[in-house]
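TICKET: design request
STATUS: open
ATTACHED STRUCTURE:
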């Protein structure tokens, strides 16, 4: 599976509102397969993966309305999330199903200037 080694954090008004971003590796809770490299802005539990914060794999980057309705583990077909719009911010995201995924924090910058 393609894992990005290079990335640049997306810094915008959402980051400024939520706080320091960190880079997470999300994997399937059922079979441990790698799913997504994701930028989470600020603290708190991970509930959604906004499309504009997915850093890998390539086929899940730059998703739009045409993206799959359901995010599944390619290996075991476990359902991980469903596509939806977070209406408060009008942003497309996968709304994650509780206990379907595992998170590993792979990088948090010591500080970032916004
Ligand atoms: Zn799986």
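STATUS: resolved
RESOLUTION: sequence designed for all positions
ATTACHED SEQUENCE:
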């Amino acid at each position: 599976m393609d894992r990005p080694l290079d990335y640049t954090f997306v810094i915008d008004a959402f980051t400024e509102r939520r706080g320091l971003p960190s880079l997470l590796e999300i994997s399937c809770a059922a079979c441990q397969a790698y799913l997504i490299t994701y930028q989470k802005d600020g603290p708190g539990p991970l509930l959604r993966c906004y499309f504009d914060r997915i850093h890998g794999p390539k086929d899940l980057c730059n998703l739009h309305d045409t993206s799959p309705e359901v995010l599944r583990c390619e290996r075991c077909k476990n359902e991980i999330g469903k596509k939806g719009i977070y209406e408060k911010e009008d942003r497309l995201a996968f709304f994650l199903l509780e206990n379907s995924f595992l998170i590993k924090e792979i990088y948090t910058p010591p500080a970032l200037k916004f």
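CLOSING REMARK: The radius of gyration is 13 Å. The chain has one helix and eight strands.
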